[in-house]
Specification:
The chain is of the alpha+beta class. The protein contains four helices and nine strands; from the N terminus they run αββαβββαββββα.
């Protein structure tokens, strides 16, 4: 074998080995719910990196008004975090985006959602006198995005928000 053929073969083998490490190799199974909220498994999978182990941790501040937190952890690193919070009347998706310090967010869904490059927020009517609230906000953030994911974020927020709504106690 000539030297150039040998070098070409080595380069090809190296590129094949590297491409196997940098792809969508997810050894974990994607959950159908996170912190009690049903999710579209394919939409969630598109927001998470390759890895071996996925865990989900829920917490809350247990104050009034209560705020709920959910972290999706892959191989020990938080990769997706969400926050659900009771809000006063008049609070909007724009307010939620600004509170999340979102940069260059845009309104979608007729103003129901605020979407930015690695996260999104929405707010819906949900009166709850025990929480002294008239609305509930849902916000999530992809901590280590893999490339441009704004379209995936927009796809995820709609279904996630609707499923989240079913987990909170709203008064008629």
């Amino acid at each position: 074998m000539r030297r150039t053929d040998l070098m070409s073969a080595l380069v090809l083998v190296s590129l094949l080995a590297l491409s196997g490490c940098s792809g969508e190799d997810k050894s974990y199974s994607t959950p159908s719910s996170i912190c009690g909220v049903s999710v579209d498994k394919d939409a969630l999978k598109g927001l998470l990196p390759a890895g071996n182990k996925l865990t989900v941790k829920a917490s809350a501040n247990h104050e009034k008004p209560e705020t709920r937190f959910c972290n999706v952890i892959v191989d020990g690193d938080i990769e997706l975090s969400s926050e659900g919070a009771w809000r006063k009347a008049g609070y909007t998706a724009k307010d939620a985006a600004e509170d999340a310090l979102a940069f260059n967010y845009r309104a979608t869904g007729g103003g129901r959602y605020a979407v930015w490059d690695d996260g999104a927020a929405t707010v819906f009517d949900c009166r709850n006198s025990a929480q002294d609230a008239a609305r509930f906000s849902v916000e999530f953030h992809v901590v280590h995005p893999q490339g441009k994911i704004e379209g995936k974020v927009e796809r995820f927020i709609g279904d996630y928000a609707e499923a989240y709504r079913k987990t909170v106690s709203c008064e008629e």
